[in-house]
Amino acid sequence: MRKNIIVLLVTYILVVGCMGGAHGQGHGAGGDLKMKYYEKLCPRSVSVEKTVRDIVWNKVSADATMAAKLLRLHYHDCFVRGCDASILLDSTQNMTTEKTAGPNRSIFGYEVIDEIKTKLEATCPETVSCADIVALAARDAVSFQFKRDMWPVFTGRKDGRVSLASEVGGNLPSAGANFTTLQAQFKSKGLNLNDLVTLSGAHTIGISHCTLVARRLYNFTGIGDADPSLDQTYAQTLRNLCPNPINPATTLEMDPNSSLSFDSNYYRALNQHKGLFVSDAALLTNRQSAFMAKILENQKVFFAQFALSMVRMGAVKDATGGPGEVRKNCRVVNGQ
């Protein structure tokens, strides 16, 4: 009986998710992207996906924290100008890029993308976009734990030529955002409520810093109080880890005791009111998203929905429709 309920829930989630992807910028089938896009564009001896996977798996094997870093890099890229690798561009005299914006100063993994790009330029020059490398690397970083692809990556993206630090704040969901703001930001990218709740589950791996939860612990409403929605025991644990005054260098697991394992533990903690951020707790303030958060405690359901939502996020495009290119160097626009 329980298996039947799970199957029905998975089917419901997938159907609703695909219906939600029929409009807007995100598309359930990858939009105009394709599987095996590079198969006929590169020499037969070159497998773009294998090249990316081999380098990423080697990096994650040596440093398990790299999985969260590369997943976050993809997420932070897609939410500003779409998945166009604009986050990779270094600032120039004429352009202060996304990389320098506050929320992106803690982004890592650029050197991994550079290494992959260098390898592919040597074997299949001026063909593989940095944007596709970022999308593939995120998938492969998470997949290392399971030794199988956790979602399909449709390819054929182009690299953007514009990257502005000023665009990051209004587009990228923040740790302090409420549900209304989160839903609006996801909707603006063509992503639905299922995607919002599911992609929040990426917090099952990785770390953050005490500075992002200080207000929640010590001055939530301006009178020296803690956020009442936070489990009291967990709040005290966080205060022990983040004593006042806050040390900006102190790190915290986003998923308590499970920050290196990609699993559904994030939702179990969330439903015990142990979500680290205001944006996590916000998922419980809406009836539909709270229901989703409960369903996603089931790991099979979470993995199925996460695969769908990552494909949809990976298809988000630049709303301005500007022309793209395939950069020779991921940090620099061609011709500079």
Describe it.
This protein has 336 residues and is mainly α. The protein has helices at residues 2-20, 48-62, 66-81, 110-123, 130-143, 168-171, 179-187, 193-200, 214-218, 232-241, 265-271, 278-281, 287-295, 299-314; strands spanning 207-209, 251-253. The chain has two domains: 1-29 and 173-206 and 254-318, Orthogonal Bundle (Peroxidase, domain 2), CATH 1.10.420.10; 32-172, Orthogonal Bundle (Peroxidase, domain 1), CATH 1.10.520. Helix content is 45%, strand content 2%. It has a two-stranded antiparallel sheet. Helix 2 runs antiparallel to helix 4 and helix 8 (193-200) crosses helix 13. The chain is globular, with a radius of gyration of 20 Å. Mean pLDDT is 92; it is low at 15-29.
Q: Oligomerization state of this entry?
A: single chain
Provide the CATH topology of the largest domain. Answer: Peroxidase, domain 1
The rounded distance between the terminal residues' Cα atoms is 62 Å
Structural class based on helices, strands and sheet pairing: mainly alpha
Strand coverage percent: under 5%
* E-strand count: 2
CATH architecture assignment name of the largest domain: Orthogonal Bundle
**How are the strands ordered across the major sheet?**
1-2
Question: What is this entry, summarized?
Answer:
The chain is mainly alpha-helical. The protein is built from 14 helices and two strands, in the order H-H-H-H-H-H-H-H-E-H-H-E-H-H-H-H.
Mind sketching the topology for me?
Elements: H1 2-20, H2 48-62, H3 66-81, H4 110-123, H5 130-143, H6 168-171, H7 179-187, H8 193-200, E1 207-209, H9 214-218, H10 232-241, E2 251-253, H11 265-271, H12 278-281, H13 287-295, H14 299-314
Antiparallel strand pairs: 1-2
